[in-house]
Design goal:
This protein is an alpha+beta fold. It folds into two domains: 3-80, 3-Layer(aba) Sandwich (Glutaredoxin), CATH 3.40.30.10; 89-240, Glutathione S-transferase Yfyf (Class Pi), Chain A, domain 2 (Up-down Bundle), CATH 1.20.1050. It contains ten helices and four strands; from the N terminus they run βαβαββαααααααα. The chain has helices at 12-23, 43-46, 67-77, 89-124, 130-152, 165-174, 177-181, 191-204, 206-217, 229-240; strands spanning 3-7, 29-32, 56-59, 62-65. It has a four-stranded mixed sheet with strand order 2-1-3-4, with helices on one face. The longest helix has 36 residues, at 89-124. It is globular, with a radius of gyration of 18 Å. The model has no long low-confidence stretch (mean pLDDT 88).
């Protein structure tokens, strides 16, 4: 049995894994798990990841959850070029520093804008709560400033002169197209971020980047009848708490 990646490309972490594996010619079998249909809640998938979340990896009898852990596993098992996860101690520490910071900062705040503007009205049928969106955008602006000043600074990439896992995670998991799809172009008034985004996309290949994001670009075409009924109410309650 070869390497299997269980992914739904509507998910930010899944897109990061897909782009990393494809850009490094890592051979894998794409096992699609449709979140809106509740396929991550099945007993079959539970055998791969008892947490019942994507992404997940199966490599022979070995299984692994959590996107960052999977990225690091792939980088080391397939000996990808050193710039992805540098052997230099301090450069690697910069990558680790960003990967540790991003979960509850940029990723969380960027997702909140998307959830508030796109998914909440879709699933509840209620008008967009303007005050919630304003708060979400302000929170995102704070962490974007921190990202520029702390992590990017005046460097081409987070760890120096070449792309690393930190840049891929930053763009796909955190600063990706989901806020843009929600009608908020976070790059418009940030030329430094826009140039960094261009460099990251060129490093992995624009065509591959667009391919991975094709589904999320069409997210507004989703309708409530495409969701598994047992998940729909749960999603609504979670979003209302945002």
């Amino acid at each position: 049995m070869g390497l299997e990646l269980y992914l739904d490309l509507l998910s930010q972490p899944c897109r990061a894994l897909y782009i990393f594996a494809r850009s490094n010619n890592i051979p894998f079998e794409f096992k699609r798990v449709q979140l809106v249909k509740g396929q991550h809640k099945t007993e079959e998938f539970r055998k791969v990841n008892v947490l019942m979340k994507v992404p997940a990896l199966r490599d022979g009898s070995f299984t692994l959850a959590e996107s960052i852990a999977i990225l690091l596993y792939l980088a080391q098992k397939f000996k990808t070029p050193d710039h992805w996860y540098p052997s230099d101690l301090q450069k690697r520490a910069r990558v680790d520093e960003y990967l540790s910071w991003q979960h509850t900062n940029i990723r969380a705040k960027g997702s909140k804008v998307f959830l508030t503007k796109v998914l909440l009205p879709l699933l509840t049928g209620q008008p967009l709560p303007t005050e919630k969106l304003e708060v979400a955008i302000e929170e995102l602006n704070v962490v974007l400033k921190q990202f520029e000043e702390k992590f990017l600074q005046d460097k081409p990439f987070i760890a120096g002169s070449k792309i690393s896992l930190a840049d891929l995670v930053a763009l796909v998991l955190s600063l990706s197209l989901q806020p843009v799809c929600a009608g908020y172009d976070l790059f418009e008034e940030r030329p430094k971020l826009a140039e960094w985004r261009r460099r990251v996309e060129e490093a992995v290949g624009k065509q591959l980047f667009q391919e991975a994001h094709e589904g999320v670009m069409n997210i507004k075409s989703l309708t409530t009848d495409q969701f598994a009924p047992e998940l729909l109410e749960n999603f609504k309650q979670q979003l209302l708490k945002q």
